[in-house]
Amino acid sequence: MIYLDYSATTPVSYDVLESYNKATRDYMGNANSIHSLGVKSKVLLNSATKQICELFNIQEEELIYTSGATESNNMALKGVALAYKNRGKHIIVSKLEHPSIYRVCDFLETQGYEISYVNNDSEGLIDFDDLKNKIREDTILVSICAVNSEVGIRQPLKTIRQIIKKENPSTIFHSDMTQAIGKISVCMHDVDMASMSGHKIFGPKGIGFLYKNEKVNMVPLIHGSGKFNDLRSGTPPLPLIVALSKACRIALMDLEKREDNIKKLNDRICKELEKYDGVILNKTKYSIPHILNISFTNIRPETFIHSMEDDEVYISTNTACSSGDLSTSVMAIYNDKKRAMSTIRISLSYVTTNEEINKFLNLFKMKYNQLNSLLKDNK
Ligand code: PMP
After folding, report:
1. Which residues contact 282 (CB under 8 A, 6 or more apart)?
2. pLDDT by residue for the chain (379 residues), tens digit each?
3. Are 318 and 330 a contacting pair, CB within 8 Å?
4. Which of 53, 105, 270, 321 is catalytic?
5. Three-state DSSP class for 175?
6. Ligand 1: which residue has its CA nearest to atom 5?
7. How far is the CA of 200 from the centre of ligand 1 (A)?
């Protein structure tokens, strides 16, 4: 099998699974219980949390565990919208966000909030002037992803933060960092809030976190005992948290070296795919090498993906969360519906090898030629 869909999800790494298993086996107590089993779990929980906080240079009170980035994004947007509704009801997001941002925006609109969509240039970079002009007195929140999930566009969060704070110091800046963490280096101090997900960094599914600067107020989505965290009640899922902590530690190692290797693989793929008449690269100077998006001019993406799958090579349409739809990001960058309707995403990781890419390219050639000749025969 050749797996090239790492931006959809990653397998759980061996060490992470070991941590998960050990915590499940040896720490059955509820970390909220006051007896010794609970205390034992609480000690482990605290040390896992401390480690994550050290890795991201944040305070323990600023970390809220969630079930993943969808929940983190919901929590950030709805939580801030409710907390600051008396100050304003205006929110700004980019045109390169994940559905877990857009669907929350749609919901908030039904609740009387106003959503503005900031423009980007033809390379996917946020239009700074447009952002500046859109920020108002009543703008409570700006949410812009650190790395876009479809085309891998990376945004300069520090610069964006400066623009926001200069226009309106009270506006909160949230960034969906789901596709950034473990791929590029990020700084939580560039933003006020950030979302992430464990299963994108070789951790288990069902765990992630929201970073929330201590100065930001938020109304909780989930109410309960509040013992563990009054912003997200419930018994802490200790094995998942321990596994997330381990996954974060591994994910942040050797980032630059890993990126260099992935860039070499990406360059090789691009060099080959450029040769095909029916392939267009959806790649700009801001795309990170881990995510490579292409469009077909004639072949249907689904047909191609299933045909590759017959030989156990796994790639995806625009994103796993919106398969089959128009790629909103390709549309936002190239403003070309046909191109946005026929995208494929190939996503690489630091475990991807040269050999896998050789096999992928050979199979790509074979499938492309087969499907093209079928199309010609049917004409
Ligand atoms: N945001 C981005 C940018 C993503 O790529 C994803 C996953 N496709 C999500 C949010 C949702 O993450 P999760 O699956 O953890 O809910």
Report:
1. 151, 293, 294, 295, 327, 330, 333, 334, 339, 343
2. 999 999 999 999 999 999 999 999 999 999 999 999 999 999 999 999 999 999 999 999 999 999 999 999 999 999 999 999 999 999 999 999 999 999 999 999 999 999 999 999 999 999 999 999 999 999 999 999 999 999 999 999 999 999 999 999 999 999 999 999 999 999 999 999 999 999 999 999 999 999 999 999 999 999 998 888 999 999 999 999 999 999 999 999 999 999 999 999 999 999 999 999 999 999 999 999 999 999 999 999 999 999 999 999 999 986 555 545 789 999 999 999 999 999 999 999 999 999 999 999 999 999 999 998 888 777 6
3. yes
4. 321
5. strand
6. 149
7. 8
Phi-psi region of 12 (alpha: psi -120 to 50; beta: other; left: phi over 0): beta
pTM: 0.96
Of 12, 65, 66, 70, the one to substitute when testing ligand 1's pocket (max ligand atoms within 8 A of C-beta) is 70
Is the Cβ–Cβ distance between 192 and 212 less than 8 Å? yes
Which atom belonging to ligand 1 lies closest to the Cα atom of 208?
A: 15
Ligand 1 contacts (CB < 6 A) are 68-70, 98, 100, 145, 149, 176, 178-179, 197, 208, 319-321
Residue nearest to atom 12 of ligand 1 (CA): 69
3-state secondary structure of 36: helix
Q: Known catalytic residue: 321?
A: yes
Q: Residue length, the chain?
A: 379
Burial (CB count within 10 angstroms: exposed 0-12, middle 13-18, buried 19+), residue 81: buried
d(CA 94, CA 107): 17
Alpha helices in 156-204 (DSSP H): 157-167
Q: How far apart, in whole angstroms, are the C-alpha atoms of residue 366 and residue 133?
A: 50
